[in-house]
Write a structure and sequence with these properties.
6-stranded mixed beta sheet; 514 residues; 16 helices; Rossmann fold; 3 domains; alpha/beta
Length: 514
């Protein structure tokens, strides 16, 4: 078997705080394989991907030891379009990122066809920053194809893609004759394309790094992992029960001997010597028990958050939450949709889908005050978290702005349940990962006891390990939900009605084929 990537004993430490986030990771990637890097935010996925592509990309940020060999030419797709590229026209971008000798009309035509974009877009003067997320990802991939890269390192190619583009990306990953190592939060994409998994974790309150490389498909890896954790939990429970019983017997004997020594009189030295000898034996048993406790199987630690239950928020069945339109949806002087009308009753969970740039977020912002007019306690979660989060404040200050002791204590308890460490609680919100900020917003909705949730891509920054808990949380909400999402798992598991925003208006959408 030919291995395109061979990595040995990779250890990554963040220079800022000297924290080790990856330790002694070794793996191989066969030629042509599609391998997913998974794990919570901040566990080193993007750093590892950058280092494998070009170690210079992590200089001044992380120190990496170990060795890696990548056979063939490499291509890299960044998580975000670099600021310097946003002002470039499409053609200028392709010229900047394609080898001059490779950028021929024939190669460009083939690449644009492979990424399902019109050929004339390649010569367009349109600025990269004005394109949809899907168009930017496709053009970046087109540049890699023009360069005929053998190995593709893709950092979140599924971010901000609409449903049609996600389906295209699945087909691309499944059929492209390249080795691909990629990061994605889209569980359906992982399920359909990942042939192997590299899982980076931080366990024991995010202090100990753990890495697993499994040469099996994503679904099989998760199935085996769940089964192993359940088995470990059962073994740990059995051992702890047996140990408690043994410890109780030991303490009973210890207390009896200790009591006998305490009541012994000086007139009985022979019994005193026997009790002293017996206590020596009992203490030896105690020391053996301490060593035995150290070797007990630990209960498995799931890294993802266990979100709290809803504290309130309920809309009675059939009660009107929103009655809107018909209205024209426009942005400045551009008409996005001719006739938009929407009625929501409690406790519906309505999802709006549509192509990138069709006006979904614009519509959502218009509907929030319409719902508030009816007297509901509405929580709005924006797609750009900085629109709502006070980035320079502490998490508890955002959750408990009045600062009273009871509210702060409640906030810290809930933060702990979501796997926030004490260190994370005591640092400004801007230092948190995108996933942690998303969970913070959802926790705010819980503590505010909202009865209507208006959510713009609520799971876009959540790892495939945290997202299931959030889907369950939203499914169990007893109020009404209006959300935009391209998360196919969320649509299928939580939405009671799905609508597509088109130029004509909102129309029913069949999600069964996703």
């Amino acid at each position: 078997m030919i291995f395109t990537i061979q990595a040995r004993n990779i250890t990554i430490a963040i220079d800022r705080d000297l924290k080790t986030i990856v330790e002694d990771l070794s793996f191989t990637v066969p030629d042509g394989a599609k391998v997913a890097l998974i794990g919570e935010e901040g566990n080193g996925k993007s750093t590892l991907l950058k280092w494998l592509y070009d170690p210079a990309l992590v200089e001044g940020y992380a120190t990496v030891s170990g060795s890696a060999t990548v056979t063939g030419t490499k291509g890299y797709l960044a998580q975000e379009l670099p600021e310097r590229d946003r002002a470039l026209s499409v053609y200028e971008y392709l010229c900047a990122h394609c080898r001059e000798d490779a950028l021929t009309p024939k190669a460009l035509s083939r690449a644009m066809k492979d990424v399902n974009l019109p050929f004339d877009l390649a010569y367009s003067d349109q600025k990269m920053g004005t394109l949809s997320g899907g168009e930017r990802v496709k053009l970046a991939l087109a540049a890699l194809l023009v360069n005929d890269c053998d190995v593709l390192f893709l950092d979140e190619p599924s971010n901000d893609l609409d449903l049609d583009t996600l389906l295209w990306l699945e087909r691309f990953l499944s059929t492209v004759k390249k080795t691909v190592l990629y990061i994605s939060h889209d569980e359906v994409l992982l399920s359909r394309t990942a042939e192997a998994v590299i899982h980076l974790e931080m366990v024991r309150r995010k202090k100990i790094p753990r890495a697993t490389a499994a040469n099996i498909p994503y679904d099989e890896y998760m199935k085996r992992r769940d089964a192993a954790m359940q088995h470990q939990a059962q073994v740990a429970q059995f051992e702890q029960k047996a140990f408690r019983e043994k410890k109780e017997r030991y303490l009973s004997i210890y207390n009896a001997v200790d009591h006998a020594q305490g009541t012994l009189t000086r007139q009985d030295p022979s019994t005193g010597r026997l009790l002293k000898k017996k206590m020596h034996t009992v203490l030896s048993i105690g020391r053996r028990l301490e060593k035995e406790q150290e070797n007990l199987t630990e209960a498995p630690e799931a890294e993802w958050a266990i979100l709290p239950k809803w504290l309130g928020g309920e809309v009675k069945n059939g009660r009107t939450v929103l009655e809107y339109g018909p209205e024209t949806l426009a942005l400045s002087d551009r008409v996005l949709s001719e006739t938009v009308a929407l009625r929501i009753s409690g406790p519906e969970r309505v999802c709006i889908v549509g192509r990138n740039g069709c006006g979904k977020t614009t519509l959502l912002k218009k509907l929030v005050p319409e719902i508030e007019k009816r007297g509901y306690n509405v929580f709005y979660m924006p797609q750009v978290y900085a629109d709502l989060l006070p980035l320079d404040r502490l998490p508890e200050e955002f959750l408990a702005p009045d600062g009273d002791k009871e509210s702060v204590t409640e906030a810290r308890i809930f933060l702990g349940s979501m796997k926030y460490t004490t260190d994370e609680m005591d640092h400004p919100i801007r230092a948190l990962s995108g996933g942690q900020q998303a969970k913070l917003l959802l926790l705010k909705a819980i503590l505010d006891r909202a009865d209507v949730l208006v959510l713009d891509e609520p799971t876009r920054n959540l790892s495939p390990l945290s997202a299931p808990a959030v889907r369950t949380l939203l499914r169990e909400f007893r109020g009404a939900i209006l959300m935009i999402t391209h998360d196919r798992k969320l649509i299928k598991e939580a939405a009671t009605r799905v609508l597509k925003l088109t130029e004509a208006g909102l129309v029913p959408f069949d999600a069964s084929a996703l």
